[in-house]
From TrEMBL:
Protein name per its UniProtKB record: DUF1707 domain-containing protein
Alphabetical list of InterPro entries matching this protein: DUF1707_SHOCT-like
Pfam family, one: DUF1707
Transmembrane segments: 82-104, 110-130
Positions of the DUF1707 domain: 6-57
Originating organism: Rhodococcus chondri
Sorted UniProt keywords: Membrane, Transmembrane, Transmembrane helix
Domain of life: Bacteria
């Protein structure tokens, strides 16, 4: 950022994030934070915006820890799904084993109907990378790149004439 250049919205957002870091570190009160954010958004040049940091120490952004095996770790939601499958599956197998032992006879292995289909769906989603629709960043990216015509409003016929709703 050159000091005498006009400041962009992206640069303002970066500075507000830095102020947020100082707020969470306890260097600023909420009121001071609000005042400084307002000054950043009112600033015309980079130099004006940087003046809000005059009495604050330089904040170093910690580097994220490197993953020892990049690309091999499951996303958090899939780890949760697999943990649930394993926990519930273990509980079902334990109940089946207790019932089989208590009756002193072999009981039909009904847990396969709980574990099998659910496990196959999870395995397919994990291997193929298929995710649910939802509101996550992946589905948002898909919607942003989809063909605009696929989201066009249908024509509505009102009183014999067709028009698009507005």
């Amino acid at each position: 950022m050159a000091p005498e250049q006009r400041i962009s919205d992206a640069e303002r957002e970066q500075l507000v994030e830095r102020l947020g870091g100082n707020l969470t570190a306890g260097r600023l009160t909420i009121d001071e934070f609000d005042q400084r954010v307002a000054r950043v958004y009112r600033a015309v040049t980079v130099d004006e915006a940087l003046r809000v940091f005059d009495d604050l120490p330089a904040v170093t952004v910690p580097q994220p820890a490197r993953d020892p095996a990049p690309g091999r770790r499951l996303p958090t939601h899939q780890r949760v799904e697999w943990s649930a499958w394993l926990g519930i599956g273990g509980l079902n197998v334990a109940i089946w084993a207790v019932v089989s032992l208590a009756t002193a006879s072999w009981v039909y292995p009904w847990p396969i109907w709980v574990l099998g289909p659910w496990g196959l769906v999870l395995l397919g989603r994990t291997v193929l990378g298929i995710e649910g629709g939802g509101c996550g960043p992946r589905s948002r990216t898909h919607r942003e790149h989809a063909h605009p015509a696929s989201f066009a409003y249908p024509k509505v016929i009102v009183g014999g004439s067709s028009r698009s709703p507005s």
